[in-house]
Amino acid sequence: MKDPDSEAQLPLPSLARESGAQVIRLPASPNTVKANRLTANKTSLRTPARRTRPNKLWYALYLPQLTNLGPSQQKKYLNRLAGHMQSVSSNVSFHPQALACEVRSGLKYFGGIDTIHQKLKKLVEEQLQQWELDDNFLYAASPTISGSLLLARSGHNALVYRKENLRSALGQLPTDVLHLNREQGRRLHNMGVRYLRDIWRLPSDGVRKRFGSNIVDQLDKALGKAPEPTCNYVPPPAFITSYDLPYELENLDRVLPIVDELLAQLCDFLRRRDLSTNHLILSLLHEKRDSTDVSIGLRQASRSQQHLMLLLETHFSQLSIPSPVTAIKIEVIKFDSFIAESNSLLKEAVPELPKQNDSSLVQFMEQLQARLGNNHIKLVSNMAQHCPEHASMQLDYSDDSNRRKSIGKVRKVSNNPRPLWLLQDPVLLHINKGRLFYRKPIAILSGPERIETHWWSGADICRDYYVARESSGSRLWIYQEKGSVKKWYLHGIFA
Amino acid sequence: MHDAGSSDIDELIQDNPALWRGCDMAGQGTTGRSTGFTQLDAILPGRGWPEKGLMEVVTPHWGMGELQLLIPLMRSVVEQGKWILWISPPYLLYAPALVQAGINTEQVLVVKLDTSCKDVLWSMEKALQTENCGLVLAWQNWLPTKVLRRLQLAADTGDTLGVLFKHHDSEHSPSPIRLKIEDSYSENAGFNESEVTVIKARGNFRSLSANINLYQQA
């Protein structure tokens, strides 16, 4: 009754324990494999696969609980899990809600598939619990990626060591594992096709014609008849380098040449990976003290050694160190893709536009920020407000969102005269012998312009603005409060 | 034929600001950038502001129309796509007035008032060296000659115009242009006009002055 091939299917230990199913374990010792190979040769009519390359063993991990999440979330989670899977294999690939990694190469090192599985299970379950997701997952291992994925999706949690046994292992799976659309599934069902082995009984040309090449291709891949291109996991780049000084240095100028050398290493690293950086930290390590950290944030990601050096030099000129430096460390916090400046073939007749991201200006601004600090450089932007003190805003240059907000918006301004200078707080004006007085007597030239606003907020403003002239020659913007106290204030200077 | 040739030579000589011809250059040549005030163009060498260098504007106190004087210049700088940097201005810069004057506020940057003097001079020198800054405005009352020379050199390398606003004139300043704005009163214009004196300008023999209505736009 027993299918000879079913021997090769081993439920992995955890399932065996849970389900309590009777399993016949087939040890993967070379002797048995050879014996099995012999039986396979006898039983199967087809010639065995060529042995030029050692068989691979793909361990697939299927997480149905990810199906409900959005694509970006799924990608994020799979990326994290792929990072965990890297601890057992160097070759991890992405699939829909699933990951596959090659484990044959590490089988001997880890001491068998069971150890690898236990190791991964612990990591994956911990991670899933951390995300508050269901910590059950499906898995399988077989010589092809698609085969492993199909086995994992079916929930068999099977282990197939040899390619020859794949066909019988896969044949028992229901057609649902192929992830067909509803119409295809219905048509297959109506044709009496329930299991994958039923599809193999049909002529493949006919299946291709009726259902498209998807099904046949998937099955060919699963049996190892077709190549399986995969999208592999690439670990994120990281750059940390340090240099221990041969003797302690107190003079930062002496440190600079070494920093320059480390930066050369960094720029080389970036150039090879076609990256640039916009945030890095240089740490000066001291003995028995906390390190002095210099954080460099760039507005425009860069990999120019000269520019980074210039910024560091600017930082160093302001820096004081508590004790001599024993070592230097550079760590990149954030990478960015490198965007090269393209040269145009034809010289453009249009004059240089201000919007153009001019690198020399950006570099100058970064240098300025490094020296003065982030909140010392301001952009001015006018706001659609009647209230004079709210009609102009000083925004931080460093904040990107501010720049985006202020760019490209032309807000209407009043046609009445407005001064170039505004006083932070209006100055109370005295009245002396019936004349307004600031530093010298003031004469009103034009006005009034009534500004009445913010009555809804409680702090209502009702003012009459006048343009006035001080007898010394300055032109002032003054106002009189309307209401019970009719006081005069100086609010701006026309300059 | 001979006459035509000499007039060509005259023209060439006129246009070359580096050539000193031993005569008063006030209102001569075309090398300058127009100030926007015809009376002022007439008394400046090259008929306008110089392309680069350091300029000093002396006013007894802030608010005498010194910014109104520079507004046409600022407008042309912004039209060139260059930036204007205001280094520690004494009051808040008011954006609606800039918009009214036709200056794009996106190209205006302000370095805050509470910046130390050393940092102010450092950023001014760096800004003058940067070609993307068309105009650098700074409010510094007293600066040693050595510093002024250094700023002048920086402005020359960056092709930038730097303007220093101050209260007191110093006779031995190395800046190529020094201006003074004073209050004036005349019968027909009343208090509308200010007296702008060109104390020193490279190419001018003596100080000249003109009465200008600085608030003609306002």
Note down, in words, how this protein is organized.
The complex is a heterodimer of chains A (about 500) and B (about 220). Chain A is of the alpha+beta class. Chain A has 4 domains: about 5-220, Reverse transcriptase/Diguanylate cyclase domain (Alpha-Beta Plaits); about 240-335, DNA polymerase, Y-family, little finger domain (Dna Ligase, domain 1, 2-Layer Sandwich), CATH 3.30.1490; about 375-415, no CATH class; about 420-495, no CATH class. Chain A contains 15 helices and 18 strands. In chain A, the strands form 4 sheets. Chain A has a 7-stranded antiparallel β-sheet, with no helix packed on it. A 5-stranded antiparallel β-sheet of chain A has the order 4-1-3-2-5, sandwiched between helices. The radius of gyration of chain A is 37 Å and the shape is elongated. Chain B has a single domain (about 25-210), classed as Rossmann fold, CATH 3.40.50. Chain B contains 6 helices and 9 strands; from the N terminus they run H-H-E-H-E-E-H-E-H-E-H-E-E-E-E. Chain B has helices at about 1-15, 40, 65-80, 95-100, 115-130, 145-160; strands spanning about 55-60, 85, 90-95, 110, 135-140, 160-165, 175-185, 195-200, 210. Chain B has an 8-stranded mixed β-sheet with strand order 4-2-5-6-1-7-8-9, with helices on both faces. In chain B, helix 5 packs parallel to helix 6. The model of chain B has no long low-confidence stretch (mean pLDDT about 80). Strand 10 (about 375-380) of chain A pairs antiparallel with strand 4 of chain B, so a sheet runs across the interface.
Gyration radius of chain B (Cα, Å) is: 18 Å
Main beta-sheet annotation of chain B: 8 strands, mixed
**Count of domain modules of chain B:** 1
* Quaternary organization: heterodimer
Determine and state the CATH class of the largest domain in chain A: Alpha Beta
The portion of residues assigned to helices of chain B is 25-40%
Instruction: Output the strand order for the largest sheet of chain B.
Output: 4-2-5-6-1-7-8-9
Identify the overall geometry of chain B: globular
Corresponding CATH architecture of the largest domain in chain A: 2-Layer Sandwich
* Number of separate structural domains of chain A: 4
Question: What shape does the CA trace of chain A take?
Answer: elongated
